Amino acid sequence: MNHYDVPRGIDVLRVFCGPDGRHGNALGVVRDGRSHPDEASRQQLARQLGFSETVFVDDPERGLVDIHTPGLRLPFAGHPLVGAAWLLDLEVLELPVGDVFARQDGEFTWITARPEWAPPRMFQQYATADEVEALPGPPPGEGWLYAWAWEDDAAGRIRARAFPRRGDGIVEDEATGAAALLLSAHLGRALNITQGRGSQILTAPAPDGTVEVGGRVLMAARAETRTAASDMTVAG
């Protein structure tokens, strides 16, 4: 059992949890963005936390948020927005790329976004899901890579793993909403993706070119406490 040890005022969520409630990608949420008013301090905190992304809430009523990895600021990212929409219970999130619409559907939180908002990804398809499962680490090469294979083509079920390969300490991304969005748009169909150790991401492309991305979100550590138990290992 691992523990998150984070400063006060930061919630830690697990986004895109599996059907059993386990796994999911860790996300730090700074509810009061004023506590880190400039980009340098935000970048420092994101690096300190070591999550694949940390989101800063600049206006909880408007849904104005700012997303950082340990090494850079992102105009858009999937799992931070799904997590923020769940935590803040909002229908719209404001980003530099545009408004992201969100909805709750039972145990799932969904966001709707345009593929062109997502950072570019390289996709490498494998012949079988077992090959993806057996990868010992990032394949050789440079650039953000999404390794995937069909588990069940007819049912739209995919096995995937994500390797940022950007030198910021995140060796493997447990669950990547932006990559799932791009793959769904590329294939032109709804997907049920199992990524990482057992995280689940759902997608649904729409006729207008947008794609919905959804998953389960659970609280791992509340802002009021300094540590909380979780089965999720912090990347890096």
From TrEMBL:
Q: Where do the catalytic residues lie?
A: 53
- Stored InterPro entries: Phenazine_PhzF-like
Q: Which Pfam families match?
A: PhzC-PhzF (PF02567)
- What GO molecular functions are on record for this protein? catalytic activity
Record-given protein name: PhzF family phenazine biosynthesis protein
The protein's organism comes out as Streptomyces arboris
